[in-house]
Amino acid sequence: MGSSAALRELQRDLEAKANDLNKLQKGKHRKESPDQKEVYHTTRRERARPQGELDLLNEDANVYKLIGPVLVKQDLAEANANVRKRIDYISAELYVCCCLDALVGLISVNSLKVYAFSALIRFNWKRLDATLQDLEDKQNSKKDTVSTYSPNCFELATPGSKLS
């Protein structure tokens, strides 16, 4: 029957959408915590302050770096490069966190769409199943009605014969 093939196709679609929903919901839990994002913001602010101070220094100024308990003299250009590189790294990590937040938002929206679509498929599945059941019932009742007639009730009238 064509309708049972349509039902199987709808069932496959429903299962595919349910699998997509499960995958989306599993991916949603991989979101970084909001605390991590705040840590990156704070660290970037902390690194921006020394950068501003280094920018104010003259070329011939002495810059020292604390390594353990010892202050080691460092070139100003090297200090600037190190601080900028650190700020760039932290900014990149913060960008990744923001992108992940946006991605999780999209996943949430898409999972709601998939859930709504699967609910619509379930609703249509029930309607289609009920319609198919009604059609099968009507077809079975027609078979029962046709089988109650005797073959003699459909005699052909020939010229000169009388119908009873």
Automatic annotation (TrEMBL):
InterPro entries in UniProt: PFD_beta-like (IPR002777), Prefoldin (IPR009053)
Region (Disordered): 21-47
A GO CC annotation given for this chain: prefoldin complex
CDD domains according to UniProt: Prefoldin_6 (cd23161)
Cited Pfam families: Prefoldin_2
Molecular function (Gene Ontology), one example: protein-folding chaperone binding
Keywords, comma-separated and alphabetical: Chaperone
Compositional bias of kind Basic and acidic residues: 32-47
Family: Belongs to the prefoldin subunit beta family.
Protein name, per record: Prefoldin subunit 6
Organism name: Escallonia herrerae
